[in-house]
Amino acid sequence: MNAIRQRAIEGLEQGDTFEIKRTFSEADIVQFEALSHDHNPVHSDARYAVAKGFDGTIAQGLLTATLITEIGGHLGWLATSMSFKFKRPVYVGEELACVWTIVRIDDRHRAEAEVIVKNSTGQAVLLAETTGVIPSEAERAVLAATPGD
Question: pTM here?
């Protein structure tokens, strides 16, 4: 069981911070295009991407946002809203670090989190806010009994 899931089982608190890292491959971008039907050539045609002002093809913004859903999934966070600000392009092979911080939890298990995704040079590529419902005590017991990574 990973540390993020373990923390969710123990009970989430305001101020909890989680981090994951990931690097997207060309295959990830192609697979996400097939799944999302996002056929913008900026993701698949280097000539088009360069004409658009990029150094080459770039990852889809929502593919980058899957770092947020990865953390949320480990937490058992049921999202009720998400907002994104895409700050910089993400290129194939670029290591990303996603830091998720819980900024508020109320007595009904509703929570808010702020998220920043940075590239390997420390520049923000994505800023996000998400609200959701965190696991109750009964749900945490189920998480504890569920095999997972």
Answer: 0.92
